[in-house]
Amino acid sequence: MTSSQSNSPFASRGARSTQAKAGEDCILVLQGGGALGAYQGGVFEALCESYGDIAWVAGISIGAINAALITGNSAHQRIEKLREFWQLVSSSAVLPGIAHGVTDRETFNEASATRSMMFGVPGFFAPRFPPAPFQPRGTLEAISYYDTAPLLQTLERLIDFDLINSGSMRLSVGAVNVRTGNFEYFDSAKQRIDARHIMASGALPPGFAPVEIDGEHYWDGGLVSNTPLQYVLDQPGKRRRVVFQVDLFAATGALPTTLAEVTEREKDIRFSSRTRLNTTNEMDRQVIAQAAQRLIARLPPELRDDPDVLALSRVHGVSAVEVVHLIYRSKHYESQSKDYEFSRVSVQEHWDSGRADMAHTLHDPRWLDRQPGANGVHVFDLTSDSPSSTRPIL
């Protein structure tokens, strides 16, 4: 690490490393969530201390950007490039009066979010001028508030797309076809990926314009599903998988007490994308698949060619899957603007929380002492008592 890197506010804090189990494919699944995506950077930094060989990264929206930064750089540069991106997007002028209490910090965060809305985010997006209502009807400029040309330049500068397409690490990003409304994944194992696919995954309307790819236009994948977990679970694989699912919105929460809290809670529910439901459904599917195979094995030979039996025989279980669930939990002073509040202090807090939660999980005896299991899905959620979740705020 160079001296300039060691002085970075995103510098490593150091942690005792653990070892991955033999014969595992490590997969990282990253949800969308704007400025909260710095949490995923901290998660990845801690994860690298235990899993040096990640096979596959899948992401939606800001998760797609983080995924591309990881897969589009060599192993020794990945954390450096993630830090560089998050330093860039949080580098706008520092607002005066850093808070010393919850109310002051709420005011600071709201002012920072308002600044992002009015002036954009460095290296990410800038307000259109003239604004969308004054742009020619039928143009992409007329249906979006911001220009994402800065993001294109950032992606092309920080990411080696030839490396992504070399097959050394798999990348999958999700987007929604504007015309059909169908969800679509762009997968380096199946096609060539470039900056358009990453930008399409993060083109959340009406802020950002859809991105054209091969004659079709695509919006942010979070409109349909904000997590690529189901896509990963649906893909065939022979080796045991460990899936680190990093969510930026919590599905559970308290009953709101103000209209502002209603807006935040609605956003959390909408973008949490039923991660638990996906894993529960997958576990149920595995039970059914295994039961079907046992039943077929007991049938007499003359029934093996029955069409219904043949249909059941195609319901295959997958190799064992362990899903490690990490969820960003909002601070008391964060509101519905938390996903577009890009102040340096908040981005650093998100990064640190992700690092602490991942380190806590990897050093938890329940994780360290796990035994390779039989086929099926096993879920670990070990962060509810993490220091980043329980320590006092301000």
Low-pLDDT parts are 1-7, 12-18, 390-394
Q: Helix/strand-derived class?
A: alpha/beta
Mean pLDDT: 86
Strand tally, please?
11
**Outline type:** globular
Tell me what portion of residues adopts beta-strand conformation: 5-15%
What about the largest sheet? Answer: 9 strands, mixed
Radius of gyration: 22 Å
Order of helices and strands: HEHEHHHEEHHEEHEEHEHHHEHHEH
Layout: helices, strands, pairs:
Blueprint lengths: L2 H4 L17 E7 L7 H11 L5 E6 L2 H10 L6 H12 L12 H18 L6 E2 L18 E2 L1 H10 L2 H4 L5 E8 L5 E5 L7 H7 L9 E3 L2 E5 L8 H6 L5 E8 L11 H14 L2 H24 L8 H7 L7 E7 L16 H19 L2 H4 L8 E4 L6 H4 L4
Parallel strand pairs: 1-2, 1-9, 2-5, 9-10, 10-11
Antiparallel strand pairs: 3-4, 5-6, 5-8, 7-8
Give your account of this protein's structure.
- This protein is an alpha/beta fold.
- Helices cover 39% and strands 14% of the residues.
- It contains 15 helices and 11 strands.
- The protein has helices spanning 3-6, 38-48, 62-71, 78-89, 102-119, 149-158, 161-164, 195-201, 229-234, 259-272, 275-298, 307-313, 344-362, 365-368, 387-390; strands at residues 24-30, 54-59, 126-127, 146-147, 170-177, 183-187, 211-213, 216-220, 240-247, 321-327, 377-380.
- The strands form 2 sheets. Strands 1, 2, 5, 6, 7, 8, 9, 10 and 11 form a 9-stranded mixed β-sheet that branches. Strands 3-4 form a two-stranded antiparallel sheet.
- The chain is globular.
- The two termini are 32 Å apart.
- The model is unreliable at 1-7, 12-18 and 390-394 (pLDDT under 50).
